[in-house]
Specification:
eight-stranded parallel β-sheet; single chain; binds magnesium ion; 16% strand; binds 3-hydroxy-3-methylglutaryl-coenzyme A; alpha/beta; 303 residues; TIM Barrel; two-stranded antiparallel sheet
Length: 303
């Protein structure tokens, strides 16, 4: 890929991570019924991909312990994919028992973050993921891959783009059909994001890449715009800007889905999501968790 901007795409897909990445970081444990209502409301906004939960150790992330009940309770629209994180075979078995049709494995470009988040080195994580992907694919379950800390790590500081490219390549070779590049702590700025994507694109096709921005330093929309200029057409976002990461101190919420949709609408890029319905959903979940809606667009359109 050249460093020149490619024309902006005419259409992008939003990958909604609020029910997982958002709620995994809430201090209070949400009731199953509230999570189910959130996901059912999101399903009615036009979103086609929703990360609904996570089959991880409840000792590590207690907020996701009720994911099987969530999957059992949601109304699954046939045109929507509801996916879940699975760090190991135990998680995959639980996801399969819950009838999950898409899973995600999640690794990191930083050794320290890998240790803190999934208790193993990068190399060990690839060994651990290998049977998960094999078994999932053998059962017609699609597998997404995440690379965390693509520009910075809370423990190691700057991360080399080459480390990101190497991890993305490993995940794609394992069989992940898509790789989400996570600025887990939201420290990146647009030119850094572009250089990182350029390095990754040498190993994995841009069509297979998604961008996953947190808004800690208010750079998320600018970084997403930079990713669009690089040809990325899949954007992870979180309704009401819910989120953070329990193993990345200081990481604030994901970019708000409402803010992304507003920007895409302004750019004339189709995403098929009803902004008004999304804002109502963001206000609903903000009321439940008892704090202001973190989406600027959500706030502006609710006045
Ligand atoms: P471990 O302690 O090394 O695992 O943790 P273990 O295999 O030794 O098992 C320890 C205990 O956990 C055992 O229970 C297992 O049964 C249980 P005990 O015998 O002690 O009672 N266990 C499980 N229980 C339920 N489901 C499972 C499971 N696996 C083991 N799947 C492990 C290793 C990977 C399990 C742990 O570190 C873990 O669960 N980590 C998940 C952390 C996490 O979810 N982090 C947030 C998501 S990543 C993120 O947010 C970043 C992202 O958004 C992208 C970005 O922003 O950049 C994706
Ligand atoms: Mg995240």
């Amino acid at each position: 890929m050249s460093s020149q901007n490619t024309p902006l795409p005419s259409r992008v897909t939003l990958f909604e991570v609020g029910p997982r990445d958002g709620l995994q970081n809430e201090q209070s444990e949400l009731k199953v019924d509230d999570k189910i209502e959130l996901i059912n409301r999101l399903s009615a906004t036009g979103l086609k991909r929703i990360e609904a939960g996570s089959f991880v150790s409840p000792k590590w992330v207690p907020q996701m312990a009720n994911s099987a009940d969530v999957f059992a309770g949601i109304k699954r629209a046939p045109t929507i994919t509801y996916s879940a994180l699975t760090p190991n075979m135990q998680g995959l078995d639980a996801a399969m028992a819950a009838g999950v049709s898409e899973i995600a494995i999640f690794g990191a470009a930083s050794e320290s973050f890998s240790q803190k988040n999934i208790n193993c080195s990068i190399e060990q994580s690839i060994e651990r993921f290998t049977p998960v992907v094999e078994h999932a694919l053998a059962n017609n379950i699609a597998v997404r891959g995440y690379v965390s800390c693509v520009v910075g790590c809370p423990y190691e500081g700057n991360i080399e783009a080459q480390a990101v490219a190497s991890m993305a390549k490993h995940l794609a070779e394992l069989g992940c059909y898509e790789i989400s590049l996570g600025d887990t702590i939201g420290v990146g700025t647009p030119e850094q994001i572009k250089s990182m994507i350029e390095a990754v694109s040498n190993e994995v096709s841009t069509q297979q890449l998604a961008i996953h921005c947190h808004d800690t330093y208010g750079q998320a929309l600018a970084n997403i715009y930079a990713a669009l200029q690089c040809g990325i057409t899949i954007i992870d976002s979180s309704v009401a800007g819910l989120g953070g990461c329990p193993y990345a101190a200081g990481a604030s919420g994901n970019v708000a889905s409402e803010d992304v949709v507003y920007m895409l609408n302004g750019l004339g890029i189709e995403c098929g999501v009803d902004l008004e319905a999304l804002v109502e959903t963001g206000n609903f979940i903000s009321r439940i968790i008892g704090r202001p809606n973190q989406s600027k667009v959500g706030q502006a359109l609710s006045k």
